[in-house]
What we know:
Layout lengths: L1 H7 L3 H4 L4 H42 L6 H5 L3 H93 L5 H92 L3 H12 L19 H18 L7 H10 L15 H38 L6 H39 L8 E2 L2 E2 L8 H10 L52 E5 L18 E6 L6 E8 L2 E8 L3 E5 L2
Helix pairs in contact: 3-5, 3-6, 5-6, 10-11
Amino acid sequence: MAAQEIENGTTWGKELWDQYDNLATHTQKGIDFFERFGNFIRDRSAIEVEYALKLRRLVKNYQPKKSKEDEENEFSTLIAFKNVLKEVADLAGQREVVAENLQNQVLQGIMLLSKILREERKKALTQGAGLTQSLHTQIGTLDRAKRSYEKAFREAEKAIESYHKADADFHLSRADVEKQRVNMNIRNSQSEDAKSEYANQLQITNKQQQQHYQIALPEVFNKLQELDEKRTRGMKEFIKRAADVEYEVSPIIARCLEGMVKAADSINEKDDSMIVIEKYQSGFQPPGDIPFEDLSKPDPDAANNSQTHNSSTGLNHMTGKGTTKDKLKKRVGIFGIFTGNKEDFSDLPPTQRRKKLTAKVQELQQKVAQEQAASDGLMKMKGVYEANSMLGDPRTVEEQLNESVNRLDRLRHELLRYQKLLEQANNQTLIQHSPQSNRVIQNGQRSSRHSNGSSNHENSHEDNGEDHPDDAGSLSSSASPESGLGTSHTSLPGSGQGSTNEQPMNEEYYEADAPLGTCRALYPFDATSEGSIPMSEGEELQVIEVDQGDGWTRVRRYSSKGWEEGFVPTSYIECTLYA
């Protein structure tokens, strides 16, 4: 095709003889675009591989679990779905074939042709640059010869003028006139020599320039045209080859789709219904009519059945340890305060506070590590810029580095603060395990409302249905900090809405609620949550429910407002229980 175009006269060498720079740029862009097409094929191949991998993972994840019972009585839907999975796995295999062929048959060819084109372009441009440099050198020689001729011509004219003046001057001797004549002849001779040199260089330059623009440089441009057309043909061939890769697997993909349709057609709802009947049919006859029971005639069996029914109903109504479901909800509602609102989590119970502080310390440590890594990276970048200023200005990194160092200092300061808070919280934990806090242990077990002989009292609560505090006591262990339940004392039993420390209790209410012992406050406590009550150091209170494992003890005291009841941290008090 290039030869035909040369014959027709439509060549780069003839039509674009003065566009050396533009042709160099055009061929470079063409090769870059060709390589970009190669990158497209590479990325597409990677997508095909990833797609095949995800299809195989999908088939694996949704593969039905094998069961002996299912194999004996498989539903048509299950069989069809298994066949669909097989076809999808085959589709994944074909996508892998497409990816492999794209890499081997298309991508490798593109990379090889691109390398050849770059080498040919470099060779052609080097040749063109050499020709251009040679022509410029000859033009420079011509310019120097012309300047020499101009200088010699002016000096010869000046010498002739001087001779004529000397010859006309009668005051000069013949020797002086002869001297001027000799000088004139010398200058004329030099002028003629410079003229001859200039004419010679002009002839050489014109010949070389004609050779350059009509033969040598057009050959270079035709080479660039040839390699550019080779790139264009390669683009065309490789696009077709990529499509052929898809064509080659399309029959197999079509068979896979036909297999899916065949699997769908194999589903039979009637056969599946029969399988259900065969799988679950018992063979028993439906029950007959229920006979009429005449209650006017005594029937011992009916009475026993009624008692049994009532007993089971009662058991279903009660939860563990005789606590009703309604009172279970109330007890759970009491412990809903494990959501700290303060920055240092001081409004949380000790265990929850330690958890929050530990999480905060770990979060800050991670942030410090990330910021330190970023700062180290900026330091390395600054060092590289300082070593080689061509890569960048170190001052542009210095401002970012200062900001990173300031952030790192703030994070370290905050981390140190929370580490100290965590250390204080851990030290406070030691108080919970001191001999004073262990005074509530009796006979090797923690005492409770239900371990001091009050089972009859519980039964009386169940009989009269009143909402007494010890009905909720059995749920204390489920509201421990480890269980994730909070201690929001929003609904104390028998107190209605709001905190019990704001409403005086009736003394008659506590006649049936005998205290389990007394306690003394080791530390002052500010009630920051609803349902808890404040206490001052050394204050004496009555224990009405011991710690059930949640870190809180229910106490009461008598004040000018009457009886007040609420929860205080177990680690803040020293308990003395009645024998």
